[in-house]
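Give me the 3D structure for Uroporphyrinogen decarboxylase.
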Amino acid sequence: MPGVSESPSQKPLLRALAGEAVWPPPMWLMRQAGRYLPEYREIRAEAGDFIALCTAPAMAAEVTLQPIRRYGMDGAILFSDILMVPWAMGQPLHFAEGEGPMLEPVRDAAAIGQLDPSVCAANAAPIIETVRLVRAGLAEEAPRTTLIGFAGSPFTVACYMVEGHGSRDFAAARGMAYGDPALFGRLIRILIDASADYLCAQADAGAEVLMLFDSWAGLLAPSQFRRWVIEPTASLVRAIRKRHPTIPLIGFPRLAGPMLAEYAQRTGVQCLGVDTSMDLRWAASAVPPSMCLQGNLDPLSLVTGGMALETEARSILGAMRGRPFIFNLGHGIEKVTSPENVSTLVRLVRTG
Ligand code: 1CP
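Predicted structure for Uroporphyrinogen decarboxylase (352 residues):
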């Protein structure tokens, strides 16, 4: 909208993150740019492989904006992947069709010694350029939409780096954490430094919020959760705060269960992403009342649609009314989701 300039404080998502009970709540969906959208599949085919798409700024910016154009979401999440941090430090990575990410595993001191966190942000320059293009695109097309930058949390990224691929239990990574905590700690330290630089570069380029995806945090025993999730996240948050003292941060320690309370208290994030397994009312009782929550619709209810979707969405809205909240899924959107069901959900949430 030419001539309309919106100050950041008027963006609903930023107001919720600042502790305001905005109603109807701002919304976006994890993995909202993706294979369920025909317009995404078209650009994905044009780009060739997934890494090529993530490192082609014009195309990556375009797919970031697609769900904003279609649905008017309040949040636009940078199109990239958590594994672009190891990629930017030189760890060989490819995405095998239908199999997910494959990395050359780092399992000993020699391999971990090769990783240089100081080159990450520079090698990620095309992704930082995408952030710039998306921010400019939003200013023109969707001035109320907030740009969310992201990285994986050190523990979850370390899981993939050590294991070399996705896994149900990440036994090699968790085994290293028990068997050689000094070595695993070196890897975590490298990831804190690299991710801090990378996230600050995103903020410098126009990201207004930063989200930390800790998809595998819930695999850890409490002592390990404190050591490998809470402490490194707190350290990463402090490093970001030195350079960007006020940028809002969303932490998503998936399947953390009751450890969520300690995570909320000790990491320094403003907002907690809540996964599908957790009762939102319990989460609200476990964190300070001014702390924003985000979540947690079951992605499967969005695949199903109809009454199941309506019942689940209304129950979340009922539980969160009157507190700072961002409507989202409890995990990424499924690729079999019908785009029409997403329209239905947007209408439901918009009418509060
Ligand atoms: O072929 C394709 O189109 C690739 C599929 C795909 C997509 C669309 C992958 C591979 N990553 C992404 C994008 C992505 N990944 C985003 C983009 C922004 C958005 O949300 O719209 C984000 C935020 C991520 C984050 C991510 N990647 C996470 C954390 C969130 C989560 O889902 O738990 C994780 C664990 C990954 C690793 C990854 N990348 C891709 C896949 C299939 C996986 C999961 C691998 C596995 O463990 O099986």
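Residues 30-35, 44, 50, 77, 79, 81-83, 95, 100-101, 150, 166, 213, 215, 332 surround coproporphyrinogen I (CB under 6 Å). Let me know if you want a second pass.
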